[in-house]
Inverse folding.
């Protein structure tokens, strides 16, 4: 009986944790709305005074983290090659002429911007990292099945 009661209490507690809505501070909401006025499908979560918001804007999936005062911490954006800066597109086309860009993950932390570009050809998947200074590095390479 004790095990059943403990299990039931655990379920109630876990259900309460997942069901409770995230309360976002006014400062965070204001910062978000000023920057992403046309955001759609907005979902908030929080952990240890960090607020994360996931949303879509102009077809780009985005996740942004703010501190409790509404200051930007980091972001992740997922998009296609046409959203990459032109200089990066040119650099990739020159170095990897035989590959096509499958997708891009843009990771910003503070002032550091890193692009992780997934390239493909008939036989391989390749991930290239390009940093703020346009340094290029292959971080992954896999054979297709």
């Amino acid at each position: 009986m004790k095990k059943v009661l403990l299990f039931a209490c655990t379920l109630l507690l876990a259900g309460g944790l997942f069901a409770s809505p995230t309360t976002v501070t006014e400062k965070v909401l204001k910062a978000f709305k000023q920057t992403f006025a046309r955001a759609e499908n907005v979902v908030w979560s929080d952990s240890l005074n960090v607020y994360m918001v996931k949303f879509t804007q102009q077809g780009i999936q985005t996740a942004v983290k703010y501190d409790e005062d509404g200051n930007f911490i980091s972001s992740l954006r997922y998009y296609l090659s046409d959203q990459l800066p032109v200089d990066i597109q040119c650099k990739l086309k020159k170095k990897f002429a035989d590959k096509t860009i499958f997708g891009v993950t843009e990771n910003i932390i503070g002032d550091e911007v890193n692009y992780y570009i997934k390239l493909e050809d008939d036989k391989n998947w390749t991930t290239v990292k390009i940093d703020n200074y346009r340094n290029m590095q292959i971080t992954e390479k896999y054979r297709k099945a």
